[in-house]
Fold this protein.
Amino acid sequence: MGEPAIQIDPMQRKKLRIEQKIAKAKTRQALALQGQIRYRKENEIEFFIRPNPRQEELLEAWTHPSFKVFTFTGGNRLGKTTIGTIIAIATMRGRWPWNNLKLPFMHNQIRKIRYVGQDWEKHIRSVIIPALKKWWPSRVPVKVLKNQHGIEAYWEDLDNGSTLEVMSNKQDVELHEGWEGDLIVYDEPPKRNIRVANARGLIDRQGRELFCATLLKEAWIDKEVIKKKLEDGRPDPTVFNVHGEIYDNVGFGLTSQGVADFESKLNPEEKEARLKGIPSYMSGLIAKSYNRQRNVVEPFTIPTNWLVDIGIDTHPRKPQALLFMATDERNFRYLFHEIWDPGSGHDIGDWIVRIMKRRVLRINRIICDPLAKGDPNNDNTTFDKIAEKLFPYDIILETATKDKDSGIIEMNDHLLGPNKMPSLFIFNTLIRTIDEIEGWMYGDDGKPVKEDDDFMENLYRMLLLDTEYVPPEDEVDEEEADNDTINPITGY
């Protein structure tokens, strides 16, 4: 006789089947998770949902069709190559890969992009190409061709036909001519003639430029790109600038310790350039908190209840400088009018009265350069002539302070306060004021240069007035209270 069959308890059999199902489910789950991890790694651009703060500014501005030229400048390791590569690939795809938001284009043709690096070996092969490989989504078929240097310099999206051509800043300028496209990305500053040759190709498609760079010596980019002006002198509204520091990328790929280790190897001048992205030719800039996007605004009519201060900087042999500043209910300041004209003290007074009446301004205080008083024994100084014109309107002309150091601190605090919010704004029609604030520098002696600083003198002096908004009705109540005061001697 054979051995009797082993009898398995039905409950045991059921338990075994359940355990087998759980094991298979866990295997499927593990395989799915591995697939998700692999997919995410191979399509990392679809999960770029946590840019650093400066990258986020740029990405938000990119969706506005009015901007045509973008600069993303700052210290080393800010994420410049990363954001340049992501925008280049997204432009080829026509959408942000992480949310499918369509990007603005002026046509329905296939997109054409140029990506300009420095030299082929040290920069393009070692920095740009690895970034393109990292961020290109594996699910999108792509044709890549190598150039004579063995570098993957031509990329074609086989889904939609869009192309990306990698070029070098050291190629002959003729090779950059005769092209048209939608976007040029410069990873590190190009030579000026290279920029001009490429920019011509953007005209037909109303394309865009993106400069991702640490500016060390390229002063022309600061002057001709970042601070570009219209023919009438106003800031060009099609330019969008973002400037950051290496610290902005801490927590987004960098660690505080890593930055500290790098910082320890730099001298003071290198720290300014490498960490903060401030080039040597801009290290003496006085208005360090100024930012065109943040502080320059479109003009509007100043409400009649806002308080208006006026600063006057007089000169015997050049035009007179008058600056008008309004303070609103939040104690935000607005520079809304400037005058730069030759004239006498009487002329200055007339200008103020005329503008005050025409714009229905609520004048708070008017201050004047102490030098306008001239000889104390002379009763007919420029100061006296201005005061004479203002006196019939119950306006007392005051002498301005000379505390320039405190005024500069106050100016930078208003341009960007400790809470990272500005409280000083400049109308874009104030051409000379903007020129001065963008170019006011410390000299070799550590003191502000006494050249093209007339409106800056007015600005810091008015800010030191520390004007606080008072509603018109409160002002009237105070006047009535003063009028109701009884003279203790006369009894009236």
Remarks:
- Residues 488-492 have pLDDT under 50 and may be disordered.
- The two ends are 138 Å apart (CA to CA).
- Residues 76 and 274 are 5 Å apart (CA to CA).
- DSSP finds 15 helices and 15 strands in the chain.
